[in-house]
Amino acid sequence: MTVQSVLVDTARLTVWLVLLALVFGSLERLFTLHAPKGRRALLADIGYFYLNGLTPALLMALPLALVSACVRAVTPDGYAQAIQAAPIWLTLPAGFVVAELGSYFAHRWAHRSPYLWQFHAIHHTPEHMHWLVNTRAHPVDVVLTRLGGLVPLYILGLDHAGGSAGMVPVIVTLVGTFWSFLVHANVRWRFGLLEQVIATPAFHHWHHTNDEHRDRNFAATLPVIDRIFGTLHLPDHFPPVYGIDEPVKPTLDDELVRPFFPPRRTAADAATPPRVDTAPMREGDPA
Fold it and tell me: How far is residue 31's CA from residue 50's CA, in Å, rounded to a whole number?
């Protein structure tokens, strides 16, 4: 990566930030769900927007390249040719489903593992939902979740599907990223039966709740996956409270460094287990 490429990417992100602010800022004003609270962490939110717009692609490039090379080395020629010859209208939906399943389990693992939760908790710290919460996440957490979705896609050779190398993962990532801004938005929209088919703000807001219904709705875009694995919670109202119990300073330096060195739990802490996935285990769930 050169200085010039960093400057170009930063300029591109700035344009996207302005466009997203115009779109979602307007929607949140017109269809406000909760009255906005103080935004003392706004600068940190913007910092995360740039940080997670620049670093994850760099961190994922090597592991994805290695996976792709290994898969090509062991994949039968007949299968590879069939995937490349398959029409994009077939391989793209397959890529979405495969990526969705992978990211579901990676996301749920981040809630179940006390160590990974230290990274993922950053995304759950906001006590008020808004569109920019989407990028308020530790880069390690972003990379692990995205790899969870993309690695299965690469293993199945879908990165070369439809005769256009790399287009399926690119489209899946772009659509998923834009949709994530929507489901975090502070809007009061409800979509009736459509909410059973595709993730909506109501669906994902319940993932950020801080009450007895937390640790649900892990899917990024397909609620049916949560239904299959027993983690769906979608009542007829929005959650009353958001955030987490653990105190975290809303500053980039503290949030970026602290997860690598989580505080040691004392005997007194044993009575209060760390917040991890409380959803019931089902046969086939990851340990």
Answer: 27
